Prior knowledge:
mainly alpha
Amino acid sequence: xxxxxxxxxxxxxxxxxxxxxxxxxxxxxxxxxxxxxxxxxxxxxxxxxxxxxxxxxxxxxxxxxxxxxxxxxxxxxxxxxxxxxxxxxxxxxxxxxxxxxxxxxxxxxxxxxxxxxxxxxxxxxxxxxxxxxxxxxxxxxxxxxxxxxxxxxxxxxxxxxxxxxxxxxxxxx
Length: 173
């Protein structure tokens, strides 16, 4: 009996420094805590609204802020473990060197996007800070969420750089 070929391609791992993996893991843990807090707050707000008619004030604002923190904190971990979307229709039959070359190209594009987003996020944070913009109900300064988002994006850039170097090295053989 022959074994069926897998229907999807797995990511092609590349070595990255242990300190980087640990740092990405810590940021993912921060994102997990933010996600858990968001879930518990949502359940509490819906429960209080249903039973007593008292929702948690500004619950939608907290969900917005915590969602942003969660997403930004998970991005470096997703990159370091190769968890990003992989379109393998054309590459399933390609060799490892070709796949690493294509992943290096993808990392290069992702690196450019990460740098661009970080640059624009920096300008957005400065604007929010200088204008003193706050959420409507809880009056949370908007720029506070950038305190976690900016380092997470910087970590994504570093992680993507290391995976890019790893894929280039494996593509060269």
